[in-house]
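User: Show me a protein chain along with its predicted structure.
Assistant: Here is one chain, sequence first, then structure tokens.
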Amino acid sequence: MWTTYESTTYQTLKCWVCGCQFAVDQYVYDSRKARGENLHCPAGCNLALGEAVSDKLRRELDYERKCKEGERQRADRYARQAVALRGVVTRTKRRIAAGKCPCCHAKFPDLHGHMSVAHPDYGGSE
């Protein structure tokens, strides 16, 4: 005759609905909690063990993907703004080189003299 002994670990719980204490096999508890399944106390109360680990990780991954996408869109927007600003600067430089006033858009043979008299504050403290 053979005798076998096995050791089982139990998780003790207290029902948060009716208050009774009971024990559940640790393997059953862990597997149900990992899958987000419910347990029932001896009185029949339905006990939710929480969100499944896979669902939590999936939710966190979706959040990180959305953050990454938002950062990429923000970087693209700033790149487009930089290109547009370079165009404005280039256009203004060309107008000034052609003798056209950047403020009143009139053409002057002595643009520097016009700017010092008509627009003394233009580009002063920048």
